[in-house]
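input
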Amino acid sequence: MKFDMGSTTLASLTKATGGSSEDLGTLIQQLIAAAEPLEGKFNGEGKAMFDSFKLHADEITAALNGSLTSILGGQSGMDTAFGTGDQEQSDNARQNMGVANFDAARFSG
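output
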């Protein structure tokens, strides 16, 4: 199995996810505003659920944004880890090449 990822892949993903977080908050607020004309049109269990939705809309928004923030933190951490690993691999290869005895590997006499 081959895993190939460009050096900017995670940074681009983090940027896109950050934009999605802002979009999500806006969409939830638009949903709440769109539901306003329905207020007072429900009875019974439907009214209770609608009222519960409105009451908890800010909590739902905060929970979803908190989850996206955690995802962003994970993406940022992965970006740092991959960058560090890439640099360490390069440093180790240079160090090992510096101490290698390439003359001993020659087959000419």
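quick obs: The two ends are 41 Å apart (CA to CA).
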